[in-house]
Design brief:
Helix content is 69%, strand content 3%. The chain has 138 residues and is mostly helical.
Length: 138
């Protein structure tokens, strides 16, 4: 495993994702969440619908990602948006606090840069394009 995954960006964002489940199970948010999220639409609870929407969005976005780092960052973003929606449904103040936390994390923590080898070819002219990519001179 690459040491880049041990950077503060990945660790702090992973911890930020665990805030909703921990508050829901261990800190008494469950009783308040049950009363608000018990509304059913087409037989499904609202919480399950939000989590399913986040999960489907993640699958489609991760399939399009080019690198594992991009897939993880997309997962962080969509999961934090889903947690934010759940917090807003349970308590508006918690939703605002979680939104502020996510904004602060976005401003402070930047995704680590990739320092490995690159297969990118930078062409400055059409002649160089034909030489490099197509393998022949014009």
């Amino acid at each position: 495993m690459d040491y880049m995954y041990y950077s503060s960006y990945f660790i702090v964002n992973a911890l930020a994702l665990l805030i909703y489940p921990v508050l829901r199970v261990f800190c008494g948010l469950e009783s308040r969440a049950k009363s608000v999220l018990e509304d059913t639409i087409m037989g499904e609870k609202r919480e399950v619908q939000i989590l399913a929407l986040v999960g489907m969005s993640l699958v489609f976005k991760i399939m399009k990602s080019a690198t594992p780092e991009e897939a993880i960052s997309t997962g962080f973003m969509f999961t934090k948006l889903g947690s934010m929606a759940l917090f807003f449904f349970v308590d508006f103040r918690l939703g605002v606090l979680y939104s502020v936390l996510c904004f602060v994390l976005w401003v402070i923590l930047k995704q680590p840069k990739y320092n490995g080898p690159s297969k990118m070819i930078y062409c400055k002219s059409t002649d160089q394009f034909f030489e490099e990519l197509l393998g022949y001179d014009q």
